[in-house]
Each structure stands twice: as structure tokens, then as C-alpha cells.
């Protein structure tokens, strides 16, 4: 009975359904928001940033997993956790559009844009092919490929909104892209010094291949200030591909599944409207003269929503289920990370 009630609360509702169920949702929502606030404090901790810089999103999912592992949560929080994961996640992805402008994609030039598109597409394709060879489910492979190819944890959760993977797949994918993205963030400046890369080549390499936005920017500025700016532009060009990738995956996922569940009931695949709204927000941000304060405020709200959703994701994750996946996801993550790095390095040397 409790499970059915939680599932009902997690499903999209129209009208005033959410407000009528606010008392049931509130405990879990408060828990997620509170842990998200704590994740911000930990992510901003100078001692931690000096060793391994982590975003509030990454810390949030770690908190969620840790709490689920160490504490027996009351049933009263479950509906709110599921609601947070469904609604706040999609709202956060929509507002993610205010971090981008279409002009960013043009700044890197035709060669840079071709490199970015090739890196994202080939990484996703390789992840699926290699994942099947390793005996992994397509959901996990697509999530790892998306996180590696596009923008880390944000891409993982956005794509999960389209393919609807298992909680353990999402948690595992986020862990993998965080680990290999962090390794790249520290390794790239050292490798660049040995290779004697120019600023332009290094920026193109870092921005086209490092997983998270924060990691790519940090690696860029570790080279010099201009490399930090240029790496950011390449990275934002990859982030802008999130919408078309989600649209393509929604179509492919429907075709490969042959229609099931909600698709059979309605005669059509559930459409990821939040992705459409993400594109609309990018468009508004590109053409409207928004003030810096307003844009910064929207970005701050977006970060808070995504952090709360990451906490909810962690609270929904059973660590035992993740552990059962074994070494194969790690091997997949390493393979696609090496692939996108080598491809981007070769392309960077050409376009620069």
C-alpha cells in the first residue's frame, strides 16, 4: 500500500494534485533541501577544494547515498524524496538553459564545433557498443556515455529523464564520470607540459573532453587565464548538445523498446517536454537583455534545484545494487574517458 502511494506521488500530475498532497511530500522535500544546503557548505570547504574540488551536485548524491546506507529512514519521507527527484530535477534542467547562449557554439568556430559534435556522438556510440560487449544494460552504458561526452552528472540525470534507468545505474554513472573527470582535471596540465601544447590546443582538448563543466574550467585555468576562458567555451558547446542528444535518445529508446508501459497505454512515447523547455530557456538567454543579477539568481536557483535532486537520487539508491554491477562499469568508464581524451587531443591539434 505504501509503495503504491509513493508511486502515485512520483507520477506527474496536473491541476492542484501536488498542493493537495503537500503534507505527504513535505518531510522528504525538507530532508532533500536540508542535505542539499549541507552539500553546498561541504563543496565550498577550502580544505576539500585544495585536494579534490567537488561540485555541490556530486557532494549531494554522496550525502544521499551515505544517509540511505547508515540511517533507517521513516516511510514518511519516501513520497517527498520521489517527488523531489521527479519535479525538482526537471525544473533544474530547464533552468540550466540560463547558463548557455547559442552564440557560445559559434565562438569555437566550425572546426571546434565539428570536434565537439564528433566527440559527443562517438563517445555515446562507443559506450553503447562497448557496454553490450561487457554485458551491461543499455541504460547504464548510455548514462556513462552521456556523462562522459556532454557534461558529467547534469547530463546523466537529464538523459535519465528520457530513458528512465534504474537508480543504481544513475548513481553508478555519476560516480564513474566524477572519478574519471577528476583524474583528467589534475592530469591534463601535467600532460600538456610534457607535450608542449599551445594554449589554443590545450583549451580545445580540455574543453572538448573533460567531463564536468567545473572540472574543464579548473583544468583550463591551471594552464593559464586565457586557456580557462577558451576551455569554457568548448565545454559550453558540448553542454548545448544536451537537448538534441536527449531528443535523439528519446526517439531511439522508443524504437528499441517497441513501445511498452505508458507508451502502450497512450499509443505514443512519453515526450521529454523539460528538454524542450531547456532549449526555450537557452533561446531566451541568448536574445533577451537579462541583467547580470537576474541571470546569476536564476543560475543559483538552478544549482539549488539540481543539488536537492541529487540528494534525492542518492536517497533512492541502494548501494548493494550498485556494488553488484562489479568491475564492468568501471572498465566502460575508463574506455570512453580514454577515447574522448585521445580523440579531442588529435582534433585540438588540427583545429588550433
Automatic annotation (TrEMBL):
The keyword Membrane applies. GO terms for cellular component: plasma membrane. It is found in: Cell membrane. InterPro entries: UPF0324_pro. It is a multi-pass membrane protein. The chain crosses the membrane at residues 20-42, 54-77, 83-101, 113-134, 140-163, 170-191, 236-253, 273-291, 297-315, 327-351. Keywords: Cell membrane, Membrane, Transmembrane, Transmembrane helix. Its main location: membrane. Coiled coil: none annotated. Belongs to the UPF0324 family. PANTHER family: INNER MEMBRANE PROTEIN YEIH-RELATED, UPF0324 INNER MEMBRANE PROTEIN YEIH. This is PSE family sulfate exporter. It comes from Salinisphaera orenii MK-B5.
Amino acid at each position: 500500500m505504501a509503495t503504491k502511494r509513493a508511486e502515485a506521488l512520483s507520477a506527474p500530475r496536473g491541476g492542484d494534485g501536488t498542493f493537495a498532497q503537500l503534507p505527504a511530500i513535505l518531510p522528504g522535500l525538507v530532508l532533500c533541501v536540508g542535505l542539499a544546503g549541507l552539500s553546498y557548505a561541504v563543496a565550498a570547504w577550502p580544505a576539500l577544494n585544495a585536494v579534490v574540488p567537488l561540485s555541490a551536485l556530486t557532494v549531494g548524491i554522496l550525502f544521499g547515498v551515505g544517509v540511505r546506507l547508515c540511517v533507517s529512514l521513516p516511510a514518511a519521507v519516501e513520497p517527498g524524496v520521489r517527488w523531489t527527484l521527479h519535479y525538482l530535477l526537471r525544473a533544474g534542467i530547464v533552468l540550466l538553459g540560463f547558463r548557455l547562449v547559442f552564440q557560445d557554439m559559434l565562438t569555437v568556430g566550425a572546426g571546434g564545433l565539428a570536434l565537439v559534435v564528433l566527440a559527443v556522438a562517438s563517445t555515446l556510440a562507443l559506450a553503447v557498443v562497448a557496454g553490450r560487449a561487457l554485458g551491461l544494460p543499455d541504460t547504464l552504458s548510455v548514462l556513462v556515455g552521456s556523462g562522459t561526452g556532454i557534461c558529467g552528472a547534469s547530463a546523466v540525470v537529464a538523459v535519465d529523464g528520457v530513458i528512465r534507468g534504474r537508480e543504481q545505474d544513475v548513481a553508478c554513472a555519476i560516480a564513474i564520470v566524477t572519478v574519471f573527470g577528476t583524474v583528467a582535471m589534475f592530469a591534463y596540465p601535467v600532460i600538456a607540459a610534457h607535450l608542449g601544447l599551445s594554449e589554443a590546443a590545450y583549451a580545445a582538448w580540455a574543453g572538448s573532453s573533460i567531463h564536468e563543466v567545473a572540472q574543464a574550467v579548473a583544468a583550463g585555468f591551471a594552464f593559464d587565464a586565457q586557456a580557462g576562458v577558451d576551455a569554457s567555451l568548448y565545454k559550453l558547446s558540448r553542454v548545448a548538445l544536451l537537448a538534441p542528444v536527449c531528443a535523439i535518445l528519446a526517439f531511439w529508446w522508443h524504437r528499441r523498446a517497441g513501445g511498452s508501459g505508458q507508451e502502450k497505454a497512450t499509443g505514443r512515447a512519453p515526450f521529454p517536454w523539460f528538454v524542450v523547455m531547456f532549449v526555450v530557456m537557452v533561446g531566451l538567454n541568448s536574445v533577451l537583455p537579462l541583467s547580470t543579477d537576474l541571470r546569476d539568481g536564476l543560475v543559483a536557483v538552478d544549482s539549488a534545484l539540481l543539488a536537492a535532486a541529487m540528494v534525492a537520487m542518492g536517497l533512492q539508491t541502494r548501494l548493494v545494487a550498485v556494488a553488484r554491477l562489479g568491475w564492468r562499469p568501471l572498465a566502460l568508464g575508463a574506455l570512453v574517458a580514454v577515447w574522448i581524451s585521445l580523440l579531442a587531443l588529435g582534433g585540438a591539434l588540427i583545429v588550433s
